[in-house]
Amino acid sequence: MHIRAPSPTSRSSVRVKPISARHRLDLATVVGIVGAFTLIIVAVVLGGTPTAFIDLPAICIVIGGTFGVVTACFSAGDVWAAIKAMRTTVMHRGRNPSEVAVLLLQLSQIARSKGILALQDYTKTQTGDGLLRQGLSMVVDGSNGDEVERIMTQEVQAAALRDSRSVGVVRKAAEISPAMGLIGTLVGLVQMLGNLEDPTTIGPSMAVALLTTFYGAILANMVFTPLASKLERNSAEDMIVNHLYVLASASIGRQENPRRLEMLLNTVLPPAHRVDHFG
Length: 279
Description:
This protein is mainly α and 279 residues long. It contains 9 helices and 4 strands; from the N terminus they run E-E-H-H-H-E-H-H-H-H-H-H-E.
């Protein structure tokens, strides 16, 4: 399916709509995770003993142990970057690839009809994405298309590597948290078996033994795994848009025909988002 964009009456009347820089609430992530937790809480409350599912030592073992082991596997900087990346799964700046493609074609038209220097007016006021602003700035400064493409490709690859590392951190946390739950279970069992002569210690020790496994399973399957999957999805969407920026900036730098740019962009866009700007 092709999306037909409204064509301007003349090239001199091209108006560029800025890319939205606002972050919007990702309802799918919020509703999914909050809904799953709500069902668990309802089941606990209906059981009549919600306080029995709260145990501070078990929480410390699972959360503290997971954080420590994951930090040991990566670095404090990687873990902090992953925490910030997880926040973007809730407040994500989604960019429609079709709208981005139309914007790039309009910028190409402006460069074709008014000259590349005309894009200087749009680098700050009309673009809400740092990568596109960087590409247009290099073009305005006189960099050729090949150089622009090379530099921007390196930026895109670096961004993909950062995203991949953040996903790896969250995936590792999903692997470690059930293991920490198992370790907590063993701790609780050892405490219980070592004090069988004192019946008052059996209950707390068994609580730690069972609740650490419960907390580990909750964290792994209801928090870290879905967030890692959403990070991968968002990264894939960002890669498509970033690739569009690279193609457009390089094409403008080479002063190519906007119709050729449209053809190039459509080779990257998914079929449902392809545009027919000049049709």
